[in-house]
Amino acid sequence: MTTGKINVSVENIFPLIKKFLYSDHEIFLRELVSNATDATLKLKHLTNIGEAKVEYGNPIIEVKIDKEGKKLHIIDQGLGMTAEEVEKYINQVAFSGAEEFLEKYKDSAKDSGIIGHFGLGFYSAFMVAEKVEIITKSFKDEPAAHWTCDGSPEFTLEASDKTSRGTEIVLHIAEDSLEFLEEGKIAGLLEKYNKFMPVPIKFGTRTEKIEQKKGEEVAPEDKDETFKTVEVDNIINNPNPAWTKQPTELSDEDYKSFYRELYPNQFEEPLFNIHLNVDYPFNLTGILYFPKMTGDLQIQKDKIQLYQNQVYVTDNVEGIVPEFLTMLKGVIDSPDIPLNVSRSYLQADGAVKKISNYITRKVADKLKSLFTENREDFEKKWNDVKIVLEYGMLSEPKFYEKAGAFTLYPTVDDQYFTLDELKEKIKDNQTDKDGKLVVLYASNKDAQHGYIAEAKAKGYEVLILDSPIISHLIQKLEADNENLTFTRVDSDHINNLIKKDEETISKLSDDEKEKLKTELETIISDKKYSVQLEALDSQSAPFSITQPEFLRRMKEMSQTGGGGMFGMGNMPEMYNLVVNTNHDLASSILNSSDKSHQQALVKQALDLAKLSQNLLKGEELTAFVKRSYELIK
User: Is 459 annotated as a binding residue?
Assistant: First the structure.
């Protein structure tokens, strides 16, 4: 037996490991199972190239709890180590440059992604264990070794009588970490971090029913059964998840089945998936799913899982996946993402930027092919994915360039057009006298029903654009398309939305109009309504309320993160009250000698206009209902 001190320049690194490096104690299991996986896969490689003259077989990794003995075992059938290798890899390599590591990465050390990249993975065991043993036998024909360390720099290394190839790590769990002897806790960690590891992982056993053979002796409880109960290894992982296969090997059902495996509590099917598979200039595989979206941009985030060689790392993929795609679900696996650095470095890293650009391009190409191959199906799913695509057009120039080919603009009649198709469709009827093409849209079919009906009566197409960021997007589209403007149907009277050359003559003289305006402004005390007289068709509504497009749009953009919108999000609502001077009601108000009757007419007409814009509420609504009953007595 030999004893010695671990070669480490920091006086005692164990407290540092426990308190500083690993803020998240649970990752010790991920690290030890990852080491066991590496040892197994390395052996596979060596047997394949003929350097290891042993039978690889069907190795598994076993995680075992000994609650009574307060021990946790991680056992593999991999390469194993000789005493010399234990001395080299455990006592020296793991600690070389530890001081430099701590200094260099002190700001990012709390990110559990660093572990394993500096040979420190094994020592994460000391976060939860007061003593750690390694019992290991190499695939080479050499004696087994037994290493023990109690969390101080002293260790012992002696011969072992282990006869089977591989390594067993025994953790003597510390008093402050006894939760890691609970079956539920370990099962949860294996599920979280090791669900898709490439080597089968056994955690306990389970019973299974299999068909009985004729004449076979059976247990009493199985007497009347055609099946018998047997105990089998409880393998907790899927070593060959869908993303490790080629797209040609997978059916639609395979993709859906994998989605259910990733999100067992998700009952809705994904809308479609995108399989990522590239090996140059970086290595990346994965499957992204478009789920049904809500209008809330934040709620959906942190649903994509990042893996490195099938080991779970994090579900915070910001900086790796373009921000607009962080609302998707799925898996990305890449050994080429540097996890040992801070997020700010990650976002500036050239390789990571290439990965982000690749994912953007791949998603855009897939959406275009889905649109081209089955437009009808794509149209049906449009409302469930539009928020992601609109956000992408605003935030990623490369996506915006490609998105014109498949971004859709639905009408209130459920027809779908690309922007080019829409321009062609409306150019004859919706070009104003200055040569500008005016795209009319509504944000709510029910609330703006009257305005939509008026626009459709004139043969205009009206889009339904209702996402929370639509004001930002149409601002961008207007900037990039000369002579194109978007106007909401309730932003002005129908005659003014698309100004033509023809003008309607007013029945009232200029003096009468001035007098009418003064009367109205006296009766309507609410300063948020600006009276605007218009000579309209005599059949048009006498009073209507509009909200100027520019002000409303700036306000909306300010409320949804429009940056320098001069605090417009806090501005009070401002409306135009459009009064039709050619309607009989305008003349009745003007010519009324009974002031109280005049007042009642104005209030009733204003309330009706408010009602059509969903602006009549509370006390005003109660007064309107009461007044209406009195008028019909």
Answer: no
